[in-house]
Design a protein that fits this description.
The protein is an alpha/beta fold and 246 residues long. The protein has helices at residues 6-14, 24-28, 41-44, 47-50, 53-58, 60-75, 81-90, 106-110, 166-178, 197-203, 230-245; strands at 17-22, 95-100, 115-117, 120-127, 153-157, 181-185, 207-211, 224-226. Helix 8 (106-110) links the parallel strand 2 and strand 3 (115-117). It is elongated. Bound molecules: ligand BJW. Residues 23-25, 28-29, 34-37, 40, 51, 101, 103, 119, 157-164, 186-188, 190-193, 211-214, 216, 229-231 line the site of ligand BJW.
Length: 246
């Protein structure tokens, strides 16, 4: 059993606002590949070939095919104990905000009621020209075109160089600024503006802890690092807090 520092438990017991930022590491134990690291997607695929608007215009078949493959993979995955523990944590604190960079829906499937998706959803797709909803999985031939205008269909995710959804980012930044405790879980802390959220929380006086087997790029700026997988550390943390509510 992972040992959870008493300091974090005390901070969470006393907190009114708790904000959680999750990244790909939270879904790793469900079988969804992370982006960076030894087995990460970017080890075998260059992000500039697949995750930018320019890459899509240059080779839409490659990009559509890659996202169709990933959609199928994500659809076959189920929430893990880390997702489930976060859904329970939401019920234990007065004001809880879950912000995720993940494009899967595993938090919702685990029972989290309100999730702010900074980087969109891989299950959604729309026409890159007219903006109407469209189905990236329609038919077997590639590229997939919009039935309304003949434009190219793209996944509903945020690529490098694209703006994050304005209202969602604003809500996430407000939740970071208001937090008494922010937990940064399973993210490498290199992609902005998401990586700024723990730093915003810290600037506004929050206690900020990271849960990640590896130290992230921003770990040295946070108060506490728990070097463990989310699927082990989060259930242990929630067990401590649930003991108070029993
Ligand atoms: C475990 C674990 C376990 C393993 N338990 N942990 C400021 C400074 C510098 C650059 C910029 C800046 N502001 C904007 C930029 C440009 C750019 C950026 O950040 N670039 C940097 C990389 C240099 N940002 C953008 O372009 C963003 N747009 C934007 O800011 O618009 C305005 C603007 C544009 C241009 C210039 C200036 C302003 C958009 C970012 C979109 C990111 N999109 C992606 C792809 C989504 C679609 C898809 O799925 O294909 O989002 S990239 C990829 O990285 C994905 C992720 O959400 C994101 C973050 O990755 P994450 O979640 O941290 O995963 P990993 O793999 O990196 O890390 C996993 C971690 O888990 C590791 O640490 C493991 O140790 C850990 N782990 N197992 C717990 N069991």
């Amino acid at each position: 059993m992972i040992r959870i520092p008493e300091l974090l438990v005390e901070k969470l017991r006393a907190a009114t606002h708790v904000t959680v930022l999750t990244g790909a590491g939270v879904s790793a134990e469900s079988g969804v590949p992370t982006f960076r690291g030894e087995h990460g997607l970017w080890k075998s695929h260059r992000p500039e070939d697949l995750a930018t608007p320019l890459a899509f215009r240059r080779d839409p078949v490659l990009v559509q095919d890659w996202y169709r493959h990933r959609r199928a993979l994500v659809q076959a995955c189920a929430p893990n104990p880390g997702h489930q523990a976060l859904a329970r944590l939401e019920t234990l604190v007065p004001h809880f905000t879950l912000v995720t960079q993940n494009v899967d829906s595993l938090h919702e499937q685990a029972g989290s009621a309100h999730v702010l998706h900074l980087h969109g959803s891989i299950a959604q797709s729309y026409c890159a020209d007219c903006g109407k909803d469209a189905d990236l999985d329609a038919g077997t031939s590639l590229p997939v075109f919009c039935l309304a205008c003949g434009g190219l269909v793209r996944p509903g995710v945020v690529w490098f160089g694209e703006n994050l959804p304005h209202d969602t980012l604003e809500q996430a930044e407000n939740a970071a600024a208001q937090a008494d405790v922010l937990l940064s879980i399973g993210t490498s802390g290199v992609v902005y503006p998401a990586a700024a959220l723990p730093l915003i929380a810290r600037e506004h006086g929050a206690f900020v802890a990271e849960i990640n087997p590896e130290r992230s790029a921003i770990a040295h700026q946070l108060h506490l690092w728990i070097g463990a997988p989310a699927g082990e550390a989060l259930p242990a943390l929630v067990t401590h807090l649930e003991a108070d509510h029993a």
